[in-house]
Amino acid sequence: HKNNNDVAKQLNRQHEKQASENRLYLQEIIRTILLLARQVLALRGHREDEESENKGNLLELLELRSFDNDLIKSKLKSLQYTHHSIQNELLCLMHDNILSQIVFQIKSATYFSIMMDESVDISRHEQVSLVIRYADDQFHVYERFIGFQRASSTTGEALFKLLVMWLKQLDLD
């Protein structure tokens, strides 16, 4: 019976070690995606398979980092976490985190103003951009791009309704 406990403890320790390494590896992927996002660089390439000469910025950068990072080197081939659906999910989580920080700052400000602009995107759909401008307690002024929304119409009334919906989504009065 003692042997079974020792085996179970050993398996548990091994599982915890592997989970910890996987978390650290995922942090490295997130750090790499964040760098590419800050530099406004595309993550993916045209073809990302092993035969491709250019697998896209994320995979190529992880490959480069694997020369200096043993964790990335050991995990990149077996445990990728680099599928486009995971990349999209990580980008969405980063977006939500940044947006919630911006909204917190806006709510801390006494006043804020909005700027909306509409344009036609590449697929000929009307889209509206929203920028919010506010100042902190030391009167440092910030302008934060919030995002794009498709507009069904660009009349004043339609844009106002879009703005009200947007502000409700952000929980801004």
From TrEMBL:
Q: Outline the extent of the DUF4371 domain.
A: 7-155
Species of provenance:
Rotaria socialis
Fetch the InterPro entries from UniProt.
DUF4371
User: Which residues, by range, are in coiled-coil regions?
Assistant: none
What is this protein's name? DUF4371 domain-containing protein
